[in-house]
């Protein structure tokens, strides 16, 4: 069964998730709706710069008065949002024949909100993904599919992004047939819900007095969509793009630079050295 799909995306990886799902399952992506400003996720170029020329694309902030009539005219079967930082009004949610779903990179109801990687920053050793029915409030709809996996071996922003891509792809392949079949999904338990607000400037600053695993986890979470992890060294603030374990052994105090590299340093943490790369 071929479905007519509308994608709501403001970040290129979110678009790719929906586009690849449609391609591998023989569905038609009839429209991609996005926002005029897509810099929130750290991309320097607008999302539309990375879209195929063959796609129908709508760029608007006016979801009720502009997006809703255009989407309705296309008679979609399903609407899929992924990395779309706006509440989707009822005027749009009521349009698709089978319903609207959202892709969220956390094990909901934990990690609701704009920064689901905060769960990892704060200590979760897992990466999670959920596809749920879209509701009136962010990330609250009934769950149709969910995946949870250990943190990737490549514990960096790119590694987390790849894990999310894999898990959300699996979730979409499970969730859309359930949606079409009329499965109501599993309601989220409010008792297990947690919010994931934006990182503060202070939270972006890495603390070399913490254990290496904590630093790696925090840096990876901070760098998922764009490098934002920071390190203060010798009076200068550097953006840290990667952290990697080393075979170097040292008992030096935390913060000691053990070796300088062309693009970073090997630095002692609370328990062992880390190779930090800056950009």
Automatic annotation (TrEMBL):
Residues 201-276 form the Formyl transferase C-terminal domain. GO terms for molecular function: methionyl-tRNA formyltransferase activity. Residues 70-170 form the Formyl transferase N-terminal domain. SUPFAM superfamilies: FMT C-terminal domain-like, Formyltransferase. This is Methionyl-tRNA formyltransferase. Pfam families: Formyl_trans_C (PF02911), Formyl_trans_N (PF00551).
